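agent> fetching stored inputs for the coenzyme A docking request
agent> found them:
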Amino acid sequence: MADLLLRPIVEEEFPAWSRAVSAAFGAHVEHAEDWIVEYDRTVAVFDGDEIVANAGAFTFDLTLPGLTSTQVAGVTAVGVRTDHRRQGLLTRMMEHQLDDVASRGEALAILLASESIIYGRFGYGMASSLMQIEVDSSRDAFLPRIPITGTVRPVDADAAAKTLPAVHDVACRQRAGDMPRVQKWWDIYFTDREKDRGGASARFYAVHESAPGQADGYVSWRIKQDWDSANANNQLRVDEMVATTPEATAALWRYIFDVDLVGTVTAWVPLDEPLRWMLSDPRRMLTKNIHDFLWVRLLDIPAAMGARRYDVEDSLVVEVADAFRPSTAGRYRITGGPDGAECARTTDDADLALDITDLGALYLGGTTATQLAQAQRGQELTAGARGRADRFFATSPLPYCRTDF
Ligand SMILES: CC(C)(COP(=O)(O)OP(=O)(O)OC[C@H]1O[C@@H](n2cnc3c(N)ncnc32)[C@H](O)[C@@H]1OP(=O)(O)O)[C@@H](O)C(=O)NCCC(=O)NCCS
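agent> prediction call returned; pasting tokens
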């Protein structure tokens, strides 16, 4: 393995690299023009002239608790060819990539995991989650007392392409864990390829306006036809629900529940999704799935902790263990509040002892020190420190990322 060469690819090597990336996910390259590649962030491991392992990263500006933001690496395109798996190639790529991310001055890396078992060993913590809901819309309705204001109107894809990005740009700065999308991402989104439809229709779109010309929310969805019985029982699959005000959220959900000939509505939503509280029969909203979404790997703890804001003023000393990158381990004092924060190494007594994965999980406020402690993760070294950490790191709304990368 030692003689395998690891390096970024150059543009001419994109066909081979994209084939390797696709094959790792059981696919063939279709629509090579849809790829967004930052070449200097790619990783390829060459065995002779063949690519046998691959990775990449996007440069994102991640929204943080307190609605600040910081540049991060969004790790993507990770794979190892079947005949080279379980020989340490992923480990080698992760070492290389985390060094590269740190050398760019980025305090953390994020990723979405194909399997949740993979990345904990490299110091990534489970930082945000999402759930899939299904509502029997034929037997449920909105509470009459939920006020519906503004107007929701359907728009075609061309009109949506002009309206949605600006709404998203605002909404993604209202929640930790989210980030803006580059124009090419939107261009690809609006191609709405048949292969991405899961057997359902092309997207439909509707936009909420609080006043004429003031778009502040949108919803996109697909319809999976079902006319097998005498009565139509279509499934409405919400693709994206993005709103910048609670009024827009309520109006858009109401619109979705008004679409005729639909039996069930499905959607992926944050864990603190308010829809249940808008329904007359909330038990009809079933949670079909709940799982991890963003994973956070802290690399520069002082920079990362100093970049976010904290719900209450406090100062906590955390002893951090980091088996994969021992240089990150150590004791840090984090002092902060709603208006600012700083963090530096310290020799003061520690209040809490945490693994780097647990600090990564706490970073966006997607869990609490108490929840981790109940899972036997983390140690309280000063009486009351856990409760203080709960309040300090708390984030509302919960972190949520809308972009699948
Ligand atoms: C996941 C994948 C990249 C792992 O690559 P790899 O080179 O085999 O990983 P490594 O040899 O460096 O494994 C390091 C350790 O992680 C473990 N590991 C890696 N992937 C694992 C998996 N999917 N399930 C369980 N354990 C896994 C290995 O067993 C090894 O454990 P050990 O240190 O105790 O021996 C590879 O299996 C793959 O390409 N999978 C399909 C694509 C994919 O899922 N990519 C991830 C996208 S987010």
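agent> quick read of the result: Residues 203 and 222 are 5 Å apart (CA to CA).
agent> awaiting further instructions
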